[in-house]
Amino acid sequence: MHFTQDPKVEIGLSDQGTVNPAFGGPDSGQSERIDMDGAQTEGLEEGLEDQNKGLDLVYSINDRPPWYLCILLGFQHYILAFGGIIAVPLILAEPLCIGNNNAAKSQLISTIFFVSGVCTLLQTTIGTRLPILQGGTFSFITPTLAILALPKWQCPAPSAMSQQIQNATGSLLIDSDEVWKSRMREIQGAILVSSLLQLVLGLSGLVGLVLKFIGPLAIAPTINLIGLSLFIEAGKKSGAHWGIAALTVCLILLFSQYLSKVEVPLIAYKDKKWEVFQYPLFKLFSALFGMCGAWLVCFLLTIFEALPSQPDQYGYTARTDVNLDAVTSAPWFHVPYPGQWGMPTVSVSSVLGMMAGVLASTMESIGDYYACARLSGAPPPPTHAINRGIAVEGIGCILAALWGSGNGTTSYSQNIAALGITKVGSRLVLQTAGLLMIILGLFGKFGAVFITIPDPVIGGMFLVMFGMIAAVGISNLQYVDLNSSRNLLILGFSTFSGLVLPTWFHSNPGIIDTGIKELDQVIVVLFTTHMFIGGFFGFVLDNTIPGTEKERGIKSWRTKVTEEGSTMMTDRSCYDIPFCTNCLQRFKFFQYLPFLPSYKSPELRT
To answer: What Gene Ontology molecular function terms does this protein carry (predicted)?
Structure first.
């Protein structure tokens, strides 16, 4: 399925099952090979062409498709990432106490699209330079919900809120938006500081050292619990009207699975003539078609008054006119800017809790780099490219925190899968997608339109999306010996603990009382973050209980990387930073920096 944020964290693998190029895009003649860095080496050309024969690519990583094709394919990537990006502000709206403030929701949606576009441009230009799209990450959702569940951040009752806003004379004391903005600033501060860890891991090259101790048995429960911990959110939205939610699920399954091999004939103009080609339309846009289909049904039911018209009646939120005023009241243009919600606030408990999300996001991105390189006609990413990619993701999360999207950014695996389907792995296409996200993020009414999506339709999307995230976590176990009682114990205990402990802490508020308020908050946030509990126990037990590398699944990972690396070309100039190659080679100092193309390991220096 290519519509959810698919946190692939199978580190070091380049072809991960769900990203196999199953379909071919429209055929094309020989394209002009132009290296955007200006460094066109004969070895790179020959290597890319040999590899493209195996992948049957129409455009590989350094190719420049025509501008109109860049816009079309870039918009396609935008639509593919739509489901994962739009889900983040919709999930956070309730715990942030935004309530029915549709203007605030619209601004959040515009902000996260804008920041995602900026981060995509950064990653494709100076990061890994792979055609990889950046967007909101579910890895940050779990710690965010844990932070907002603290007593100080729980939403006040409507009566209490009105008392906070007005004094005895009835005049306003504070901005009515201050209730949710104060919570947003806390999340901003947590993401801002914790993302420095990701930046340090990338710039220092420590990410490689960390990966040596993280195996599938640490990754699987971590990612699995991201999906499992969000079942309450999916239930709340779906429960607004289970019939509409079920319809949404059925439509998504219909387009993504049952009709996935049905190719639709489309017309294209090429070589001064019109041609008909087959295209996997349903497979690529399954989430969009499923959501729009259910949205249309809700619209028709609203028009014919088949849904309840009273807010207290079951099924009322399935109407499409509930939040219609959001579109009419939203401004045509809204320019997101840093600090638009105020100065971020920082607390130790929030930062430590968010670090669990940062580490999980880092792990999932590394696996995506290998998969993206494989499907875009590039060699496996070298160490400096991975380090730089993680550092740029850290910068992206810092920018997201400054702008106030309520989330960070990470690579999107469903867009990587689209590379294999469209057979277009051009970097320029993803840079175009980034520009489109920035431009559309500036239109206030564009973001407001998404607020009118009925709750049960969103709930149906959540049911499939969060289920896929949980399943992706489990898929990491394919390289582990599941006949080993050691592995079963680690997997079962870490996953079960990640469900039990947070539930118990939520059921017993105030049970932790060490006498130090800050320490109490740290303990509560960490032990109510499902993914932290699962990942922590999985990491500790996997590295302390005796077991062979084959039994732990680490050997299979390394074997896969070695095999693919031996079959790929060795010219990796496509990972060079543009306009900096000559300067980096001129000064010896730069070979000591692990995030630059001129970096040499200590063994090579001697």
So the answer is: transmembrane transporter activity
